[in-house]
Amino acid sequence: MSPFPTSTVLGYPRIGPRRELKRALESYWNGTSGRDELDRVGAEIRERTWRRLAELGLEGLPSNTFSMYDQVLDTAVLLGAVPARYRAADDPYFAMARGTEGLAPLRMTKWFDTNYHYIVPEIGPDTVFALDAAKPLAEVREARALGFETRPVVVGPVTFLLLAGALDRLDDVLGCYAELLSLLAAEGVAWVQLDEPALVGDRSAEELAAVRAAYARLGSLADRPGLFVASYFGDLGEALPALAATPVEAIGLDLVRGGVPALDLSGKTVVAGVVSGRDVWRTSPERALAALGAVRASEVTVSTSCSLLHVPYSVAAEPELEPGLRARLAFAEEKVAEVVALARSPRLDASPAEPSVALPAPVAPERRGPYAVRAAAQAEHLGLPPLPITTIGSFPQTGSLRAARAAVASGTLSQDDYERQVEAEIERVIRVQERLGLDVLVHGEPERNDMVQYFAEHLDGFAVTRNGWVQSYGSRCTRPPILHGDVGRPAPITVRWATYAQSLTDKPVKGMLTGPVTIVAWSFVRDDLPLRDVVFQVADAVRDEVRDLEAAGVSIIQVDEPALRELLPLRRAAQADYLEWAVAAYRRATSGASDRTQIHTHLCYSDADQIVTAIDGLDADVTTIESARSGARILPTVGSFTRGLGPGVYDIHSPRVPAAAEVEDLLRRTLAVLPVERVWVNPDCGLKTRTYEEVEAALANVVTATRTLRADL
Ligand code: MET
Ligand SMILES: [Zn+2]
Asked: Is 522 annotated as a binding residue?
């Protein structure tokens, strides 16, 4: 077996340095260009990536890390797990990813604790697996034609089946993997990478047995490339001895999140992830070299802690960043250069100094009384009807607003003219809500490009990038802000918009803020302080904003925490501690308000049922939560909730307008588990991705349904 290369990366961004793939996909989807053009752009991105990695001096080049949509979906196709209903579609792959006229797409959810979303494979007892190795083989050949030998990367069998909830199909799937390995061997491929990030979570004895069985079987094949099993996003724990006992030749460890294992891995190659694929900071060479020196294995290869999919392409595309900050940054290209430099350096064997721990932040005083006292004060002050109707904050973002923001950035529109346009939009949003008959209004968030970036642009300690795009799902990318220093709020951020909106109407208008956990979760965060301390700093800035909104006469303030669950540690043992400080941060942000001020929070993305107790602990007077999208699956778990709650009655992810009868049915189901005086009526989430036409029709039905129920009370 040829030795494993001395330097590699587990994967690379694929959207293109200028989001070329995004544009190509979208023009293919809307019919502007054909399949050939899309394939040409894909090939160009792959070629540029291989050439660049080789130029930077990287030895082990991966292939099959490119994807037209998602690597888990690619694996489903590789294994023939295409549900029958998609097979007749014009393009079954994109039909599964995005749906068609008559066909809903497959479910999509977050990839472990990242902000990347994968397509959940649908595997039933009738799924017939059949290998279709066209894509990985084509990429190996394509790279070879360019002069590069590559290591194909495929999601491993255990992770694939765990994500699909179908580990009982392991035997069947292993047949396909065995066949794939023999095809790759015949192709002259030296190594294959099987990604098994699921192994860093809590795994049952049965699941660990599956790991042993899977890799014992694949390892025993005579006719195969070297097997490299990559773990990432944490420590392998119990799964490491399980894997080490199998014949796999190389094991990938995330040494940024996990520690150097005590286990002696003699006989194996360890692919040591010492350069983080999850942050944007330069690697400390001392720490990395010490970790490399501490690994006990036959060979140690320098690598990234996970795929570089989760960071932008290059700091070189950010000439406008402040030079002091730029010098601290490393995106994908710079991280590859670090891997190469580390691979060429002699190892250290001293252990590095532990990072210093910051003093805990001072306690912010709780001003708020118990819920019952607050609820009474708010009822008197606000005088809302039963089943109050509200929305989550954003209204449709129009093309002209986006164009106006671009015009301000390029200097063709003055800030004043832009602000007039924002005000005009706020007025439109207020009038729509009044006409429809909503009870608690919003200003519509027209001034926000994004609910995190907007705050990052107005807080000290954050920088925003120009080209720092990171894939979120399919063609969608976000540009996470970079939280690099101490956070401060030099001036009020939202007060002028909230008070302007309130000046237009007698109905209460909610002030809208993004919560500290979400701001941090959707940013790249400094790593020299514990995460908790950084979140507390952001909480203090939000607390200042809450105080100023209240002083300006805003009587309802919503602090959104849609990412509360996202930072939940993968291992159960660490979850309670996280939830405790996350909840404390939220209360720090909101507990400066008086009893009379009604605090709302909002959460979305499925799986909130896992953290209902923590959500209740936020102590918000009203919580609006996604529910309609998941068929009200959350309702049975919310009966224990002790404050105001609005399980969504309108799935805003779909252009479909729910009928009044559907909304009424959802409300009745809510009223079956919660007392009427605590029930709120609202959509699942903000309306910014919808059109006014859809939103007005849907909200009109929400109002009709609510009025029917009110008449029954
Ligand atoms: C992803 S949660 C979004 C909340 C925000 N207030 C909005 O309405 O868009
Ligand atoms: Zn939401």
From this structure: yes
Whole-prediction pTM: 0.94
Q: What integer pLDDT is reported at residue 356 of this predicted model?
A: 47
Q: Is the pLDDT of residue 606 over 90?
A: no
| Domain-located, residue 223 | yes
Pair of tokens at residue 93: 């792959």
Three-state SS for 267? strand
Q: How many domains does the chain have?
A: 2
Q: Out of 510, 602, 604, give the residue to mutate to test ligand 1, the one with the largest number of ligand atoms within 8 Å of its CB.
A: 602
C-alpha 99 – ligand 2 centre gap (Å): 22
CA 137 to chain centre: 30
Which residue, by CA, sits nearest to atom 8 of ligand 1? 686
No. of helices (H) and no. of strands (E), the chain? 24, 19
Residues 236 and 142 in one domain: yes
Question: pLDDT confidence of 633, banded at 50, 70, 90?
Answer: confident
Looking at residue 357, its pLDDT comes to 47
405 lines ligand 1 (CB under 6 A): no
| Helix%, strand%, coil% for the chain, nearest 5 | 45, 15, 40
Residue 608 is given by DSSP the state: G
- Regarding whether 623 and 541 lie in a shared domain, the answer is yes
Nearest CA to ligand 1 atom 9: 686
Does a structural domain hold residue 177?
Answer: yes
Answer yes or no: do 431 and 329 share one domain. no
Q: Sign of dihedral through CA atoms 571, 575, 578, 579?
A: positive
What are the φ/ψ torsions at residue 235 (nearest 5 degrees)?
Answer: -85, 140
Neighbours of 472 (CB within 10 A): 17
| 653 tagged catalytic | yes
CB atoms inside a 10 Å sphere around CB 349: 9
- Ligand 1 pocket, 685 CB below 6 A? yes
Q: Note whether residue 549 is domain-resident.
A: yes
Question: Residue 517 and residue 529: Cα distance in Å, rounded?
Answer: 15
Boundaries of domain holding 445: 375-397+427-449+493-712
Domain membership flag for residue 87: no
Cα(346) to centroid of ligand 2, in Å? 49
Residue 175, sorted as left (phi over 0), alpha (psi -120 to 50) or beta, turns out to be alpha
Q: What is the pLDDT of residues 660-700, one digit of tens each?
A: 999 999 999 999 999 999 999 999 999 998 999 999 999 99
Same domain, 173 and 306: yes
* Residues 243, 385 within the same domain: no
What's the rounded Cα separation, in Å, for the pair 494 and 409?
Answer: 20
- In whole angstroms, give the CA distance from residue 244 to residue 586: 42
End-to-end CA distance of the chain: 76
Residue 104's pLDDT is: 85
Q: How far is CA 600 from CA 454, 496, 625, 646, in A?
A: 20, 20, 11, 10
CATH classification at residue 542: 3.20.20.210
Distance 338 CA to ligand 2 centre (A): 38
Do residues 624 and 392 lie in contact, with contact meaning Cβ atoms separated by under 8 Å?
yes
pLDDT digits (tens, 9 = 90+) for 133-178: 999 999 999 999 999 999 999 999 999 999 999 999 999 999 999 9
